[in-house]
Every structure is written in C-alpha cells, then in structure tokens.
Model the fold of this input.
Amino acid sequence: MFSSLLNNSGGSSSQLMKMTKWRGCLYTDEENVHFAREDELNKGHDEGGEETTGPASMGFTAHSQDPECHSQVHLLNAQGALITTWEAGWNVTNAIQGIFVLGLPYAILHSGYSGLLLIILAAVCCCYTGKILIACLYEENEDGQLVRVRGTYEDIANACCRKLFPKLGGRVVNVTQVTELIMTCILYLVVSGNLLSHSFPALPLTEKTWSVIAFVGLLPCVFIKTLKIVSKLSLLCSLVHFVIIFVVITYCLTQIHRWSWSRLSLSVQFESFLVAVGVIIFSYTSQIFLPTLEGNMKNPGECRSMLNWTHFLACVFKTAFALAAFLTWGEDTKEVITDNLPSSLQTLVNLCLLFKALLSYPLPFFAVIELLHAYIWPSHKSHWLAVILKSSLLLLTLLMALFVPHFALLMGLTGSITGAVVSFLLPSLFHLKLKWEKLMFLEKCADISMFILGILCCVAGLVCSVKGVLKALE
Done:
C-alpha cells in the first residue's frame, strides 16, 4: 500500500503552507507602491518602539488605518514568528526532501540516463518558479526601489485577476491550497499506519488501528502556535531524512561489487517515463508556501540564495541516492527502495520513515490552520477557537484516513492537478502577467516554457492517475 501511495501521490508532495493572512494590510494595486518610502522598506517598530525586520516592516504597515491589521502584525512579532534564513531553509528542505525520494531509484529504472538528467533539470525548474513567485510579491516605487506590496499567494492571484474577477483568483488558489494541504496531512497518517504494520508484523493489529496509534502522537500539533516551532520540527525531519539516505547509501556501497553501468538504458517506454517524470518533478515542489515563508524571514533578501543552496543540495543527494540504489539492485529495484533492504535494515529504516512522516505532518497542518482561521474567524484571536479548529482538522484527517477507500489513488488524481497548477502553471502565468513589460526576451521564453511544462505534467499525471483508478475499480 505504501508503494502505491508513493507512486500515485502526484503533485501533492509539495508540502504547503500559507502561514499568516494580514486582512486589509496589503496593497494589491501597483499604484499604491508610490506611497511606500525607502525607510519603511527595511524597518518597522513593535509596540515597544524596537526596530524589527520582516513582514511587519515591508513598506505597508505604516499606511494601514485598520487597527486589526496593526494588532495582527504586532501579534506576529510578539510571538517571535520571524525565522532565520537557516530555519526557512529547513522548511524548504522538509518539502523537497520528502518521501518521494524513496521512489527515485524506481523512476531511474523506467527512465535510465534521462531520469538522471531530469533530476537536475527538475531542481533548476522548481528553483526558478519559486524565485519568480517571490518576485511577484514586489513592485518598484518611484525611486526604483523594490517594495513588497503583496503577502501571500492569494494576493498575487487577486492582483492578476482584479480587473475582471477581483477575488476569483485568490479563491481558486486558496481552494487548491486547502485541498492539497489536507490531503497531504491524511497521506502522512495513512503512511504512518502502513509503516507501523510493516515494522511490527507479529502484532495482530490492522493498518487502520496503527493509524489511530500514530494519530495519538500527532495530538501535540494542537498546541503549535508559531512558525519557529514548525521550523524546528522540519529540522528534525530533515535530520531523520539524512539518516535514511545515509543508511541506504552505506548499504549500497557495501554492494559496490554488484554495480553495473550497463543497467542504465538510453531507451525508455513513454508511459513509464511519464510516471518517472511525476515522481521526480513533484519531489521538488515547495512553491505553495514560499510567499508567506519569505515574508516571515528576518532577512527576506536572502530567500533567493536560500532557494539556490537548498535545491542544489537536494539535487546532489537525490542523484547520488537514486544512482547508488539503482546500480545495486538493477531490474529488481522496487517502487519503494526500502523494500529491497535486508529485513533488519528495513525495520530500522521503516521506523525512521515513521518519525519522518510524523515530523512532516505539522508543516501542512499549520499551514491549513492559518489559512482557514483567516477566513472563519478573521477578527478573533481566541485561543479556544484556535484549539477547536485544530482539533477538528486533526479528527477530520484521521476519519478520512480510516474510511475513504482508495485514498492513494484519489490523492494521485487530485495531486496531479493541484501540484502542477500551483508549482508551474500559476507562478509562470502570474509572473508574465505582472512583469511582462519589464521582462527580457529570454525571461519570457523561460516563463512560457514553465507554463507549457506545467500543462504537460498536469495532463500526464491526470492520465496515469485515471488509469490507476480504473484499474483499481475493475
């Protein structure tokens, strides 16, 4: 079952977040940029008069007349929600070094040398779409200074659609984000139950029972209040991930006498290649939460360099891992590479994967909570209302994990659409819309190429997922 989850989850590996929505605080019209002064770009003041940097000082707080807006900004600073570049990097790493990595050797089996090239190209493309999405948050003022005039993915969408449908773009983006975030949370519960059942096969418990046990370990998520806590959990998640990679690669190196480069092929089957494309590309997606993540950084100017080194390291690790594992097992490579390991190592790695799944859960969970809270209770800061919302979402993910049939296939079908749209289609489309007059010819070509790639990924993933659903229903 875990194998099918990995193979069919499509674009939903993009762990998403939309941390804070400042209702009424952001100027979404370009003409409002002229009201931002240069000294407001890098400075802000909290309630005690101390200078701060970050989202509360991005050139729009001084002009907002909405007291609710000011209270939300001060609350953000009071909670210490601003994160360092390293903490932001761990969140991105958590997203792009997910469970999909375990399917990369199987993708190489079906794609050969082209798969290795695709791992590199996917890192470049996803890093690029992340950067252009961040660029859509900014506009130049009269002095040529870049001013942050938008705060979230929704704000970008509304800015692009404001002439025809002022709120439609933001609502479409929000629905897409909520859908993918919730399904990602459910996926972690399903995977946790599957891993526990395989780690302790002697115990007479079903996978659903193990999912309930894993759910108990997620109850502390109700008390998560800030992005800094999520960042620390992402750090632990990344460390567990590195342990998994280290164990698998170390074992592969002990089997180096079995390696044969002749196992890598130049010719591939088209349908199998599409599966490989889905696994590889969507193992890099993190665009859905980048706007808010960048806005919560102490030094937002370092976001681009952070994206560079996180994607570069991810590319190196993924290439080494996929190549070493495939050269070790060749044609016997399974969909989830841990199934190829000896039983003793397999149990150890499965337990590490369990911790990784549980530590990954808070990232999309916190994101969807902040998104829903902004719409359900935009003017309330009640602790108990937040607890009720978090508890309800936790219970919802458990119930869906237990009672929705063929969830993995449904995940793949939804993810094939939402992942491609949020990660490729929309960033390139929004960048072309907002920056067309300022883009160079090569930049326009790059954006159009990303848009076409998004369409191809969406169609390819949709076809593969529908075939999987029809096969399961036979």
